[in-house]
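Please predict the structure of the following assembly.
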Amino acid sequence: MKCEDAAAFVSALYDGERIPREAAEHLGACEACAGRLASYSSIGAELRRVAILGEPMDLNGGVWDERQAVQSSWWRKSRESMRIPRFAFASMLGAILLLSGGLVMVRARPNTTGSVLWLSIKLPPEGKVFHSALATGGQPGSDGLGHFFHVPGGGTFSMGVRFLHRKGDRVELGVKARYENPSPDFSGPADDRLQGITEQSLWIEPGRNEEVSVPGLGSIEFAGDFIDHKPPSFFSPEDTVDPKADEFRIVSPVLIRGKEVVFNFGGASSMSSSRVSIYWPGEGRFLFSSAPFKDAVRGSAFESQITFNIEGQEYVLLTAVPATRATNVWIKHEPSYKPSEHSAGASDSEGMLGGESPSDFPKE
Amino acid sequence: MVEDRELWERIRRGEAQAFDSFYREMGPRLLGFLRQMVGNRQAAEDVMQETFTQVWRSPNGFAPERGTLRTYLFGVARKRAAEWWRNRGSADRGVIEERTECKTETASLVGDAFQRLPEEQRSLLWLREVEGQSYVELAQILEIPVGTVRSRLFTAREELRKVWHSTPPARKEGT
């Protein structure tokens, strides 16, 4: 064996690793390689000397507040928390699109032709992933998204993402993120939570993960891929049009009473729950379920329409996707319902769409 | 490993005292490592604080069967340091590197040459020479194969050896 072949093994031998017999024989007889070994030893000693001189004499203790055990599903909670304050969410989204500042970047896969970036965002502390789609064909700020979540251990995480630029298979996003503990008052303007937060530039490229650090919470991981259209469902772009068994889907609902439009709740959606409620200011709450429940009337579901009759008035609920596999659904109208009487901080002046708890649907 | 599991179980249960002990034991060493990675003490302290906070707030991030708690901690710290560099941008990087080139009482030619190595080689060499991490542990921290650890350590040492051999003996001794 020659010195140039044996050199790499000098480093391994110095580290106490096993090396081939042939290399060991060479190192024992070669003066040059013995000199290399001595050099490595001296360099190591010098680095350790630098380390000792640079070590702090003392370290202040950290402030480690008592952390509650993680008990419930972050994703489940986050979805629930997103569904309810729809108007707050919508106003936050609008505000996010107007916000400006610094930058954060994300990448995308080569040779892709799609114009929509399908983002997968992994959240601490449990590593749950949610998806969202952003159009990349417009001007900077032409598309964006906003989320806020209740964190299982306490506090609220808010995030805004907007499209900035696309260069080939790379997409630049502007990301704002904030963790607040204790949680802010939800009744205030949503965009307040991200005011003053510096927007980071994040370049996304398919096949690569990027991270954004959120002080006090941890790192959010971003991954992106291109798809050729923007999926109709905001929450689950990978879903098919066909609803799952026992799933009640309401997306951008419009309720018609006789010939009157009661509400047009574009952009709001609720999926996966078998029960749904819709609150609208001045109209109270409508409860929908695929199973009978107390004081509910039976209606009919066909594709994306639900028809029912309450107090002599014909109703049609239109949704953007087929609502349920069931043909019969049960509906209850609570005209005097006010969110503020049931949930602290809830607003009576905003529409709400959500999967409700079983207690709202007592059996007959 | 048993001690690791016991300590981690206490940390998972939210025992702040256990975590504080861990912080006091590992903090100075982690800070030394991060100073080499990010170039100045203030930034290193910030990244260290973020690292410990992440470990404290993400109790399920560590898997005892996959390595030691120390390995996990340094792995998190390295990612945090890389993230710090990304967020700083290229303009700030120049400023910080300039600062690290300033001579201090503790600096040495080897130390300066060390600073000019690529980030991954700096991590490898520091964790091996100062922290005494094994090749397997280094592979876990840097998420690279063990064979790559071996070859990159050799490359890094060769870079420093060139400096070492070009330096007069008196300078080597720090006089």
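Residues 69-100 of chain B form the longest helix (32 residues). Chain B touches chain A through 53 residues (CB under 8 Å).
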